[in-house]
Every structure is written in C-alpha cells, then in structure tokens.
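pinging the channel bc i need a second pair of eyes. not urgent but kinda urgent?? the chain im working w is below, pasted from the shared doc
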Amino acid sequence: MRFIARGFTDGTSVYAHYVRKGRHRKTVLLGAAQGPCGRIDVRRRQFPFTPAVGRWTLQIDNQADYSAEPLGVFVRLAITVSRGLPRPTG
C-alpha cells in the first residue's frame, strides 16, 4: 500500500503506530518527511504483521514512541479487518 502524507516538519522521521482495543501493538518507521510541505510518499504493507479480526487504529505522527495524545501533527485512520472469504476447493 502507498502512504502519502503532508504537513510534517521537513527532515523529521514519520512513524505509523498500530493500536487495537486501546493498546499499542506495533510501531513502524515510514521514513523522513521532505520538502517545504513535509511530504512523505512510501510503499509499505498495510499491516507489517498478521492482524487480528476487528477494528484497528493507525496513527501517523513524528514520535518514535506511541502516545495517545501526541505532540505536533498527527492523523488517525480507522481500519476494520474482517475474515476473508473461504478459498474454493477442488
């Protein structure tokens, strides 16, 4: 999947924090924001692990450690993971 974000400070690292049921599960470095708009454009797996079924929150910010109340610019996205369709047999 492609992550495109703007509005971060130029040169600062941008992180993605995966949260489920209010608990932080994993943090991934997306890269450094570049240019006057603080833009990042990277390809990563949507989940860098096998996610449990349910509702997840993906929080993107400049902090290496997850905080429910981050300082500075951040965005939160809701992701619902559902069970896939069964594979055909035969």
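so The chain has one domain: 2-81. and Residues 2-81 form a domain with the Immunoglobulin-like fold (CATH 2.60.40). — does that match what u expected or am i reading it wrong
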